[in-house]
Amino acid sequence: MSTTARDASKANIFKSMKDIKLESTISHQCGVTMSDSVEARAIAEFMDEKEGITVTYNPALIRIDGSGKLIFKMDEISEYLGREMTAEIFEVNTSTHYGRMVRVDDNTVILFGDMDEVMEYI
Fold first, then answer.
1. What average pLDDT does range 20-41 have in this prediction?
2. Is 15 left (phi over 0), alpha (psi -120 to 50) or beta?
3. Beta strands across the sheet bearing 69-73
4. Which residues contact 80 (CB under 8 A, 6 or more apart)?
5. Are the beta carbons of 30 and 66 closer than 8 angstroms?
6. Considering the chain, what is the average pLDDT of its residues?
């Protein structure tokens, strides 16, 4: 990771292999990786204002990570972006994700880190 990217994200959430302890615990982490674009940057900047969210800028990708669940409201992101953001545009910008992704309606996409919590949507 470049120093510029690390400085922009305020922290390095990635660990060296020597610092990783393999344990049998559940983290309840969830997150999304997006290709760097105008829309992805707007989503990242908007989500970075929320408590408990970590945004990491890499040269071509942006990661948004959290614990429990991440709620993406398209109308709020649209207002921040200055033009319409739909769930379809959000999904196109998403390269990958971890956790369970649920599209609740046309306005709301939720990523769950806690698999028990997602059961009400299945």
1. 87
2. beta
3. 69-73, 108-112, 100-103
4. 42, 45, 46
5. yes
6. 88
